[in-house]
């Protein structure tokens, strides 16, 4: 390592430390930052200057007489420039959102589309339109997109979607078909991260994404558990009944066949979630029974998940969020009947306030968290583009 | 923090670094250790001297002309003094083993006892006899026991066994009933660690402990996954059939009721694993069918576990190790039928070479790994006792 390279890598690390402290402690003066980080005031001032120029930090104008140094102009994290794009393709909708550096949600677009009927190239071209609309609107607000992540309900590896059975996708290389640079990740994983960063769940939970498919993301100690190859959390294919109906995955009696959106609607002869909610509010027995059965199956699959993964709490998201008042009791009953004999506590069952917004928010949040941890990459790219 | 305290904590950290490098690189000279660690030769020599005096390190006599410094007397990790005691209480046996600092297995005792018939205090008194016998024998060999861990087939929190349903234990405080200081941990977790440190599995696997109960331990990137409260891995209570036979845990149709040792023996009217193995070798249809059914149920539960936890490989241990030739195919078939449609690879299914020895070995190994990471505690305790 040459002296210059070593110096650059130290500067990169220190910039991340300074930005992290501004995020945690802001508004905070340069003098206080020097004291907290152990860096010289000159170094801190230079770095704060660079961060202000990059629009990541702003002077808050406030003076501070705090314990940590003399009064001075304080700085805070700024959301006025750097932002990230979160995207989602799900079976019956497309979403895009823009989140700024302070994790404030700046834009949110969602569009109902039946993506099962379309080839991947068509769905991706629809998505590109939505994404460009979001990026254009963000630019008009003075935001620069530092990166974007796409959430897909399937097994993902790099830019390749191995399989997304409910979309009918197999070996789709998204990076080749989309005209903007994106990372691709599993929808249920990103929804769990969305819940962690934008929701109200504590740092230990299993977030359940109920859509046409059912995925789950386990967060332990504030970190997403991904398994050996990043394929963990496929709750929808946990076996509820070994001789049950055949599933699109090739198995039988998977949870999805009992509690997935299609199974649920099919059981009461309805075609959409809004109609189902209406029927439930009207107390229609067919709809109530369908929720009872779906909740019971979900409780059985969650029992297996609790025995295997020991989550802190269970957060129901996706369409399970609006359905929560009707599925809560059957889920709880199925879990309690099977768990209380062995465990002295059954995990709490709560509802996500984000619903189906969790995945695109987590997708954008993942980019923002990376920028916060390593701001130099964004600073340098700005310099190159300038 | 006073200057003296800071100095002590630095010395503690550096001792761990030096011991770690001796373990990884030994035989290695003091000069090479100074170069690797960046510590002064005087500091390294003093620390190596302390470690030799504590019996943790020995001069290997070998001279080294390696790239890392001039020739000198090399040192290696030594197994002649420091050791750990691993203990296990399972439903039909008790075990004890002694492992030295080099992770060599020095003693291994096992005793068939039906612990269901006895109150916890009696079982623990039996265990204490076995443990004292092992400690006495270890002392005769010049070994000093640095600590001990007890493996129990149940849900454990500190020294308290919340419940071990197959032992009939509920809220048993082991620390109050055993006359030697032990840590208590879950049998399946310790068996997975035993497989990691003493077996042939790579760093990413799900180890299945087939005993009267069935537990599992997931290792990802060389680290045991414990869940939010340390209760993860209860594979035996994954639901195989929601309306199946009642289980001791309060649930229904748990894997244990199909593939636990009792269920397996009951299905072919035999009373012990040796008889079962004899019948299988003789090709008796009843025994073969019982294994087929058990393997099939195990494959269904593992399908759910793979979807949720995404393990690298599956290692079958405990009594599943000797039964492997007869359960391998039904397990593989059940997994392949359900997994291949969705995943491009199904995890490999392998067999543990350790069988039921994995848990006590992991129990002792856990103590040794702690001593290696923080040798100062063992050095200090020696000093206090002297």
Labels describing this entry:
Arc Repressor Mutant, subunit A; HTH_MarR-typ (chains A, B); Nucleotidyltransferase, domain 5; 13 helices; ROK family transcriptional regulator (chains A, B); about 375 residues; 5-stranded mixed β-sheet; homodimer
Radius of gyration of chain A: 23 Å
Which CATH first-tier class of the largest domain in chain A would you pick?
A: Alpha Beta
Using the 3D structure, state the CATH architecture of the largest domain in chain A.
2-Layer Sandwich
Structural class of chain A: alpha/beta
Greatest interface (CB-CB under 8 A), with counts per chain: A-B, 48 and 48 residues
Instruction: Walk across the major sheet of chain A and give the strand order.
Output: 6-5-4-7-11
Helix content range of chain A = 40-55%
User: What characteristic shape of chain A results from the CA principal axes?
Assistant: globular
Element-level helix/strand string of chain A: HEHHEEEEEHEEEEHEHEEEHHHHEHEHH
How many separate domains make up the residues of chain A? 3
Reported by name, the CATH topology of the largest domain in chain A is Nucleotidyltransferase, domain 5
Protein name (chains A, B): ROK family transcriptional regulator
Pfam family, one (chains A, B): ROK
InterPro entries (chains A, B): ATPase_NBD, HTH_MarR-typ, ROK, WH-like_DNA-bd_sf, WH_DNA-bd_sf
Organism (chains A, B): Streptosporangium amethystogenes subsp. fukuiense
